[in-house]
Amino acid sequence: QVQLVESGGGLVQPGGSLRLSCALSGRTVSNYIMGWFRQAPGKEREFVAAISWSGGGTYYADSVKGRSTISRDNAKNTVYLQVNSLKPEDTADYYCAATETVYYRDPTRYDYWGQGTQVTVSS
To answer: 112, 109, 97, 92: which is closest to 43 by C-alpha?
Structure first.
């Protein structure tokens, strides 16, 4: 029903910044929550941030709160994740996802996923 495409990943030095984008197409509904998750090799997929599509309420994991900003542009059907002060432990594949539930921290509650964009933080 909905397709998600991430972009904006790449190689960044520690302390640098990245802005990831998630473009939506197909059917969209106003009560979706859009989430960003990340997964490093050998580790569990973890919640990063989420935003309510209609209301714009934002939610952040403790690991990124204070240095990350999630936002949306309804006219462009795009969700963004700005991450500043990047650390080596931020290295992971980053995924955009959509859920129709309120359980935005649980990856098993998300119905739609993008294919991911790789972020590498290294000197």
So the answer is: 92
Number of Cβ atoms within 10 Å of the Cβ of 75: 6
At a CB cut-off of 8 Å and minimum separation 6, what does 123 contact? 13, 14
Average pLDDT across the chain, whole number: 94
Q: Which of 110, 1, 94 minimizes the C-alpha distance to 45?
A: 94
**79 in Cβ contact with 71 (< 8 Å):** yes
Q: Is the pLDDT of residue 57 over 70?
A: yes
Q: Which amino acid is at 11?
A: L
Whether 105 shows a pLDDT value over 70: the answer reads: yes
Please state whether beta strands 10-12 and 117-121 pair in parallel, antiparallel, or not at all (unpaired).
Answer: parallel
* DSSP secondary structure code for residue 85 in this structure: S
**Is the Cβ–Cβ distance between 99 and 32 less than 8 Å?**
yes
Is pLDDT above 80 for 34? yes
Chain centre distance of CA 73: 14
Q: Residue with structure tokens 């509650």?
A: 109
